[in-house]
Amino acid sequence: QLPTGLYKKVLVILHDSILPYMNEPTLMIDFLTVAYGIGGAISLLALNGLFILIHQHNLEYPDFYKKLYSLLDPSIYHVKYRARFFHLADLFLSSSHLPAYLVAAFIKRLSRLALTAPPEALLMVIPFICNLFRRHPACRVLVHRPNGPEDMSEDPYIMEEESPSESRALESSLWEIRSLQNHYHPDVAKAAAVLNQSLSEIEDDISGLLELSAYELFDKEVKKKAADVPLEFEQIRGLFGKKNDIFAEHFTLD
């Protein structure tokens, strides 16, 4: 049992300042798996080290994706380590051999949580979801379901289910993204509207969106140049400059 602060300090540097210099990095398996099971920010930070052990040292973690799925809660769009988490989640969900039900569960949960996410997080997660559709075409039924969300009396997706295989995500539709098409932020509404069209084969580069902040969004809006809005369809030539102006018939400047 380590203090939470110490866990975070170690896990932040573990993947690049400790594991590469160990003769036997596999000695950290127990430490990282325990940290991964704690939950919250500690689990997010443990992902880096676990990824190295899985990718380079043949670590088998049968319930890895189930635990990764359980980390998706409303705080995921607000935490300090959001960029790190989504960078790794992008790697973990990149394999084309993942079952459709698993990827659909991630898409559906991310979309449901997006309903309460801030705009800067939405501008990152919507392209993230689009990339998942490009990698896993079997999940496109969530968007192109024949009956559509309008004919569903209720959403069959079970948000509280901890296991992706039991969440019934593939039976659902992506009505959450449809809702975001009416978002108050125009950039978010425009990003969500991409799913109304056929997606291109080329994936979106989300690396520049992972660190997007509310300040950057606000600064971008403030620096926009306002376009001149025409208020008249005829150019004015003085107070009584219009032809056949009823105002000029009754008043003069004498």
From TrEMBL:
Pfam families: CBF
Transmembrane segments: 31-54, 85-107
Signal peptide: none
Keywords noted in UniProt: Membrane, Transmembrane, Transmembrane helix
rRNA-binding is among the record's keywords: no
Lineage: superkingdom: Eukaryota
Domain CCAAT-binding factor, first and last residues per copy: 43-192
InterPro entries the record matches: CCAAT-binding_factor, Noc4
GO cellular component: Noc4p-Nop14p complex; small-subunit processome
Family the entry assigns: Belongs to the CBF/MAK21 family.
Record-given protein name: NOC4L protein
Organism lineage string: Eukaryota, Metazoa, Chordata, Craniata, Vertebrata
Name of the coding gene: Noc4l
